[in-house]
Amino acid sequence: MPEHDTETRFDRMRALWRCGCAVGQDWLYPSHCTLCLEPAPSGICAGCADDLPVNAHPCPTCAQPLPAAGVCPACQQDPPALDAVWVPFAYAWPLSQMLLRFKNGGRASLRRPLAGLLAEHLVPEATQGVDRVLPVPLHAKRFAERGFNQAEQLAAVLCRARGLRLDAARARRVVATASQQGLGRRARRNNLRRAFVVEGDLSGQRVLLVDDVMTTGTTLNTLAREVRRAGASWVGAVALARA
Ligand SMILES: [Zn+2]
Ligand SMILES: [Zn+2]
Fold it and tell me: Is the N or C terminus of the chain more exposed, i.e. has fewer CB atoms within 10 Å?
Protein backbone atom coordinates (compact mmCIF):
# COMPACT_ATOMS: atom_id res chain seq x y z
CA MET A 1 0.00 0.00 0.00
CA PRO A 2 1.42 3.44 -0.89
CA GLU A 3 2.58 5.39 2.12
CA HIS A 4 0.22 8.35 1.60
CA ASP A 5 -2.81 6.02 1.79
CA THR A 6 -1.76 4.86 5.24
CA GLU A 7 -1.23 8.46 6.28
CA THR A 8 -4.65 9.51 5.05
CA ARG A 9 -6.31 6.65 6.85
CA PHE A 10 -4.34 7.36 10.02
CA ASP A 11 -5.27 11.06 9.83
CA ARG A 12 -8.91 10.15 9.43
CA MET A 13 -8.81 7.78 12.40
CA ARG A 14 -7.05 10.41 14.50
CA ALA A 15 -9.61 13.07 13.50
CA LEU A 16 -12.47 10.70 14.36
CA TRP A 17 -10.91 9.89 17.72
CA ARG A 18 -10.37 13.60 18.51
CA CYS A 19 -13.92 14.42 17.46
CA GLY A 20 -15.26 11.57 19.60
CA CYS A 21 -13.22 12.80 22.58
CA ALA A 22 -14.49 16.35 22.12
CA VAL A 23 -18.14 15.27 21.90
CA GLY A 24 -17.60 13.04 24.96
CA GLN A 25 -16.06 15.95 26.85
CA ASP A 26 -18.97 18.26 25.96
CA TRP A 27 -21.45 15.61 27.05
CA LEU A 28 -19.71 14.59 30.28
CA TYR A 29 -18.58 18.05 31.38
CA PRO A 30 -21.10 20.57 30.03
CA SER A 31 -20.46 23.15 32.77
CA HIS A 32 -16.70 22.78 33.01
CA CYS A 33 -13.80 24.75 31.58
CA THR A 34 -13.18 23.63 28.00
CA LEU A 35 -9.39 23.90 28.56
CA CYS A 36 -8.74 22.44 32.04
CA LEU A 37 -12.04 20.74 32.99
CA GLU A 38 -12.32 22.71 36.26
CA PRO A 39 -15.94 23.63 37.08
CA ALA A 40 -16.87 26.80 35.12
CA PRO A 41 -20.48 27.57 34.19
CA SER A 42 -19.32 29.99 31.44
CA GLY A 43 -17.35 27.21 29.72
CA ILE A 44 -13.95 28.74 30.53
CA CYS A 45 -12.52 29.27 34.04
CA ALA A 46 -11.04 32.56 35.26
CA GLY A 47 -7.54 31.05 35.49
CA CYS A 48 -7.51 29.85 31.88
CA ALA A 49 -9.07 33.12 30.66
CA ASP A 50 -6.26 35.06 32.42
CA ASP A 51 -3.64 32.88 30.67
CA LEU A 52 -4.97 33.56 27.15
CA PRO A 53 -2.68 35.63 24.89
CA VAL A 54 -3.80 39.28 25.10
CA ASN A 55 -3.46 41.90 22.40
CA ALA A 56 -1.33 44.44 24.28
CA HIS A 57 -0.67 47.91 22.75
CA PRO A 58 -2.99 47.49 19.72
CA CYS A 59 -3.16 50.21 17.07
CA PRO A 60 -6.45 52.08 17.79
CA THR A 61 -7.68 51.91 14.17
CA CYS A 62 -6.54 48.44 13.04
CA ALA A 63 -5.76 46.61 16.33
CA GLN A 64 -2.40 45.45 15.05
CA PRO A 65 -0.22 44.53 18.05
CA LEU A 66 2.52 47.16 18.46
CA PRO A 67 5.58 47.26 20.72
CA ALA A 68 4.24 50.42 22.40
CA ALA A 69 1.02 52.49 22.41
CA GLY A 70 0.37 54.54 19.24
CA VAL A 71 -1.00 54.48 15.68
CA CYS A 72 0.73 52.01 13.32
CA PRO A 73 2.62 53.36 10.23
CA ALA A 74 0.11 51.76 7.79
CA CYS A 75 -2.86 53.56 9.42
CA GLN A 76 -0.92 56.85 9.52
CA GLN A 77 -0.22 56.58 5.80
CA ASP A 78 -3.60 55.28 4.67
CA PRO A 79 -6.32 55.86 7.33
CA PRO A 80 -8.75 52.91 7.41
CA ALA A 81 -12.54 53.18 6.93
CA LEU A 82 -13.08 52.16 10.53
CA ASP A 83 -13.16 54.86 13.21
CA ALA A 84 -11.99 52.52 15.96
CA VAL A 85 -11.22 48.86 16.49
CA TRP A 86 -11.03 46.77 19.65
CA VAL A 87 -9.67 43.22 19.72
CA PRO A 88 -8.96 41.92 23.23
CA PHE A 89 -6.92 38.80 22.39
CA ALA A 90 -4.08 37.76 20.10
CA TYR A 91 -4.76 34.93 17.64
CA ALA A 92 -2.49 32.35 19.26
CA TRP A 93 -2.79 28.97 20.93
CA PRO A 94 -5.04 27.87 22.59
CA LEU A 95 -7.54 30.50 21.44
CA SER A 96 -6.69 29.91 17.75
CA GLN A 97 -7.39 26.20 18.20
CA MET A 98 -10.68 26.88 19.98
CA LEU A 99 -11.82 29.22 17.19
CA LEU A 100 -10.88 26.71 14.46
CA ARG A 101 -12.72 23.89 16.21
CA PHE A 102 -15.73 26.11 16.76
CA LYS A 103 -15.92 27.15 13.10
CA ASN A 104 -14.73 24.10 11.22
CA GLY A 105 -14.49 21.27 13.71
CA GLY A 106 -18.12 20.82 14.69
CA ARG A 107 -17.57 22.00 18.29
CA ALA A 108 -20.71 24.14 18.57
CA SER A 109 -20.38 23.95 22.37
CA LEU A 110 -17.39 26.32 22.14
CA ARG A 111 -19.80 29.15 21.31
CA ARG A 112 -20.48 29.79 25.00
CA PRO A 113 -16.88 30.20 26.24
CA LEU A 114 -15.78 32.10 23.12
CA ALA A 115 -18.72 34.51 23.10
CA GLY A 116 -18.34 34.91 26.88
CA LEU A 117 -14.70 35.93 26.43
CA LEU A 118 -15.63 38.71 24.01
CA ALA A 119 -18.54 39.97 26.12
CA GLU A 120 -16.43 39.97 29.31
CA HIS A 121 -13.07 41.19 28.03
CA LEU A 122 -14.16 43.88 25.58
CA VAL A 123 -13.57 47.33 27.12
CA PRO A 124 -16.82 49.21 27.96
CA GLU A 125 -15.99 52.16 25.64
CA ALA A 126 -16.22 49.83 22.59
CA THR A 127 -19.99 49.58 22.96
CA GLN A 128 -20.78 53.02 24.42
CA GLY A 129 -23.32 55.00 22.39
CA VAL A 130 -23.64 52.23 19.76
CA ASP A 131 -27.02 52.26 17.96
CA ARG A 132 -26.78 48.87 16.29
CA VAL A 133 -24.47 45.89 15.97
CA LEU A 134 -23.80 44.23 12.60
CA PRO A 135 -22.04 40.87 12.49
CA VAL A 136 -19.88 40.28 9.40
CA PRO A 137 -22.20 38.18 7.21
CA LEU A 138 -21.31 34.85 5.62
CA HIS A 139 -22.24 34.11 2.03
CA ALA A 140 -25.37 31.91 1.83
CA LYS A 141 -23.31 29.04 0.45
CA ARG A 142 -20.81 29.14 3.30
CA PHE A 143 -23.67 29.53 5.79
CA ALA A 144 -25.33 26.40 4.38
CA GLU A 145 -22.09 24.44 4.74
CA ARG A 146 -21.40 25.54 8.31
CA GLY A 147 -24.96 25.84 9.58
CA PHE A 148 -24.25 29.04 11.52
CA ASN A 149 -22.43 32.36 11.31
CA GLN A 150 -19.79 32.47 14.04
CA ALA A 151 -19.66 36.30 13.98
CA GLU A 152 -23.42 36.49 14.53
CA GLN A 153 -23.21 34.08 17.46
CA LEU A 154 -20.52 36.20 19.15
CA ALA A 155 -22.49 39.38 18.40
CA ALA A 156 -25.73 37.95 19.81
CA VAL A 157 -24.13 37.19 23.19
CA LEU A 158 -22.41 40.59 23.26
CA CYS A 159 -25.72 42.37 22.52
CA ARG A 160 -27.54 40.42 25.23
CA ALA A 161 -24.81 41.15 27.78
CA ARG A 162 -24.72 44.90 27.04
CA GLY A 163 -28.30 45.66 26.02
CA LEU A 164 -27.41 46.46 22.38
CA ARG A 165 -29.49 46.10 19.24
CA LEU A 166 -28.44 43.20 17.00
CA ASP A 167 -29.07 43.94 13.32
CA ALA A 168 -27.97 40.67 11.70
CA ALA A 169 -30.04 40.94 8.48
CA ARG A 170 -28.85 44.44 7.51
CA ALA A 171 -25.72 43.34 5.64
CA ARG A 172 -25.43 40.50 3.15
CA ARG A 173 -22.43 38.93 1.53
CA VAL A 174 -23.36 38.69 -2.14
CA VAL A 175 -20.10 37.43 -3.59
CA ALA A 176 -18.75 34.08 -2.43
CA THR A 177 -15.17 35.33 -2.11
CA ALA A 178 -12.29 32.91 -2.25
CA SER A 179 -10.42 32.38 0.99
CA GLN A 180 -8.40 35.43 2.05
CA GLN A 181 -5.61 33.29 3.45
CA GLY A 182 -2.20 33.80 1.90
CA LEU A 183 -3.24 36.94 -0.01
CA GLY A 184 -1.52 40.31 0.32
CA ARG A 185 -3.32 43.52 1.30
CA ARG A 186 -4.11 44.62 -2.28
CA ALA A 187 -5.19 41.12 -3.40
CA ARG A 188 -7.50 40.89 -0.37
CA ARG A 189 -9.05 44.25 -1.26
CA ASN A 190 -9.69 43.20 -4.88
CA ASN A 191 -11.01 39.85 -3.75
CA LEU A 192 -13.61 41.54 -1.54
CA ARG A 193 -14.65 44.45 -3.77
CA ARG A 194 -18.50 44.55 -3.96
CA ALA A 195 -18.68 41.52 -1.66
CA PHE A 196 -21.19 43.19 0.71
CA VAL A 197 -24.58 44.85 0.32
CA VAL A 198 -26.01 46.95 3.16
CA GLU A 199 -29.78 47.49 3.06
CA GLY A 200 -31.69 50.61 4.14
CA ASP A 201 -30.80 53.96 5.61
CA LEU A 202 -28.33 54.21 8.49
CA SER A 203 -28.21 58.03 8.56
CA GLY A 204 -26.58 59.34 11.72
CA GLN A 205 -26.23 55.87 13.21
CA ARG A 206 -23.28 54.65 15.24
CA VAL A 207 -22.64 51.12 13.97
CA LEU A 208 -20.42 48.46 15.52
CA LEU A 209 -19.24 45.56 13.35
CA VAL A 210 -18.41 42.17 14.89
CA ASP A 211 -16.16 39.42 13.55
CA ASP A 212 -14.48 36.44 15.20
CA VAL A 213 -10.93 36.95 13.91
CA MET A 214 -9.36 40.07 12.42
CA THR A 215 -6.44 39.26 10.11
CA THR A 216 -5.47 42.35 8.08
CA GLY A 217 -8.76 44.19 8.58
CA THR A 218 -9.66 44.14 4.85
CA THR A 219 -13.00 42.36 5.43
CA LEU A 220 -14.05 44.72 8.23
CA ASN A 221 -12.93 47.82 6.31
CA THR A 222 -14.75 46.74 3.15
CA LEU A 223 -17.96 46.26 5.11
CA ALA A 224 -17.34 49.54 6.98
CA ARG A 225 -17.22 51.45 3.66
CA GLU A 226 -20.63 50.04 2.70
CA VAL A 227 -22.08 50.89 6.13
CA ARG A 228 -20.76 54.43 5.76
CA ARG A 229 -22.27 54.65 2.25
CA ALA A 230 -25.63 53.79 3.87
CA GLY A 231 -25.25 56.92 6.02
CA ALA A 232 -23.64 55.78 9.28
CA SER A 233 -21.91 58.60 11.15
CA TRP A 234 -19.47 56.34 12.98
CA VAL A 235 -18.34 52.77 12.30
CA GLY A 236 -16.32 50.75 14.80
CA ALA A 237 -15.39 47.11 14.89
CA VAL A 238 -14.65 44.40 17.40
CA ALA A 239 -13.27 40.91 17.06
CA LEU A 240 -12.21 38.28 19.55
CA ALA A 241 -8.68 37.73 18.25
CA ARG A 242 -6.15 39.62 16.10
CA ALA A 243 -3.83 37.63 13.86
ZN1 LIG B 1 -9.71 26.32 32.95
ZN1 LIG C 1 -3.09 50.50 12.45
Answer: N
CA–CA distances in Å: residue 170 to residues 10, 89, 166, 188, 199: 45, 27, 10, 23, 5
Name residues with Cβ closer than 5 Å to ligand 2, which is an ion: 59, 62, 64, 72, 75
Among the bound ligands, name the one nearest to the CA of residue 242: 2
Contact 181, 219 (CB under 8 A): no
Query: Distance, CA 74 to ligand 2 centroid (Å)?
Result: 6
Distance 59 CA to ligand 2 centre (A): 5
Domains present along the chain, CATH in parentheses: 54-242 (3.40.50)
Cα of 123 from ligand 2 centre, angstroms: 18
Could you read off the pLDDT of 207-234 as tens digits, one per residue? Answer: 999 999 999 899 999 999 999 999 999 9
